[in-house]
């Protein structure tokens, strides 16, 4: 077994141990919340937690943004996002059609520092291992059915998570009438409608693909959630006058629907599923996941 494989296995064990410790600590989060409310309101400490006061107070004093509530956030995988620019590997399913190849090229143009990799005969585990060794932060894989892009997988490296989306209504750049020219500057990002815990989780997954703009940019990437369907749009804008802004769509455009979040990379078939869209949920009009 090579040193890189042993290192990856050790890091994975450490990562799973940290998550298990977070789950065990979650049992005491209710007590900490009670104590926190008592301190903020200046009321008496609840009877059931008086015997645990000293330990709970030390836990509250040690909290920070990542461990708020006494439990390490599940999004700790993205704790370092923004400190360095992401490097994204964009690839396809095997034997891609010309339309899927074009779509993957356009995705690689949207994401700064992205590299389009020809899948060839690589197995998924070989692809992920190669991406890790090349210091990629994410793998984006697009899939198709009969020449039409219908799937998008985003896998964060080195430990996950992996989000699976279905795609509909895909329109490529050259299919948009009067499409404008596209700059390659770092874009501004708009995330709208991601209000639930899962929605914020998905927002973090999408946000981690794009670096923070370092210069004035007139390029905007938008992910807008509406009834659990995420609309992707890509625009350039220009200002004419003081209060007039002109938008020019530069494509591509498509709709996304989340159907699974897995706590692991795309090659980990036995990893735990954090969220799965169940068939009966499609009939629940009032329940919104995102």
Automatic annotation (TrEMBL):
<dbReference type="GO" id="GO:0042134">
    <property type="term" value="F:rRNA primary transcript binding"/>
</dbReference>
<dbReference type="GO" id="GO:0032040">
    <property type="term" value="C:small-subunit processome"/>
</dbReference>
<feature type="domain" description="Brix">
    <location>
        <begin position="86"/>
        <end position="267"/>
    </location>
</feature>
<feature type="compositionally biased region" description="Basic and acidic residues">
    <location>
        <begin position="11"/>
        <end position="33"/>
    </location>
</feature>
<dbReference type="InterPro" id="IPR044281">
    <property type="entry name" value="IMP4/RPF1"/>
</dbReference>
<dbReference type="GO" id="GO:0005654">
    <property type="term" value="C:nucleoplasm"/>
</dbReference>
<dbReference type="InterPro" id="IPR007109">
    <property type="entry name" value="Brix"/>
</dbReference>
<dbReference type="GO" id="GO:0034457">
    <property type="term" value="C:Mpp10 complex"/>
</dbReference>
<protein>
    <recommendedName>
        <fullName>Brix domain-containing protein</fullName>
    </recommendedName>
</protein>
<dbReference type="Pfam" id="PF04427">
    <property type="entry name" value="Brix"/>
</dbReference>
<dbReference type="GO" id="GO:0030515">
    <property type="term" value="F:snoRNA binding"/>
</dbReference>
<feature type="region of interest" description="Disordered">
    <location>
        <begin position="1"/>
        <end position="33"/>
    </location>
</feature>
<dbReference type="GO" id="GO:0006364">
    <property type="term" value="P:rRNA processing"/>
</dbReference>
<dbReference type="GO" id="GO:0042274">
    <property type="term" value="P:ribosomal small subunit biogenesis"/>
</dbReference>
